[in-house]
Amino acid sequence: FPVTIWSAVIYSDAGMGNAIALKFFESGSWQLFGGSNVSTGAASKPQIVAGDAGEFIVAYIDDTDNNKVKIKKSNGISWTDFSSMEASNEALIDLGTKRNTTGDVFMMMVDEPGRKMTIKKLENGGGEWIDMGGAKTKDSVGGSPSIGLDRVGAPVVAYPNPKAGNKLSIRKWEGTTWQ
User: Fold this and answer.
1) CA dihedral 2, 58, 72, 85 (to 10 degrees)
2) Across-strand partners of 88?
3) pTM of the entire predicted model
4) CA pseudo-torsion sign 138, 143, 148, 150
């Protein structure tokens, strides 16, 4: 399903082979942001965060590359690879992205098999991805997990926990561990 930000929308475009497109509304019609689709082939689960300089950072699951996460950044003219490595080397089935006020980008990924959740951080929107609190959560997650930020910009994740009868589990990052 599409995600709307301001007067822009990001979605998997069935008319373009399910490539990820970011469009904005201008002068009475929708225009392709950055001059081309974000992905070059079929992709899903697009997530978007805005940068300080008006650029967009888009993460998506690349359906043509074993469901790995790809991350692109746009300066408004073109799309480029955002980080020096992929956020995951495993097939993914869910994805979430948030950016706090200090520029840190947080990525929540759920892999298959096992439905284990991984949270990674890209400090100040650059450099290498850092595992937060170990490679994976110990519990499998059910349903569709979600990532958000608390008042100070620390990540909080919520997910149905199959080991607890699919009751909602919420974990908050406390600087060095998840609580």
Assistant:
1) -120
2) none
3) 0.75
4) negative
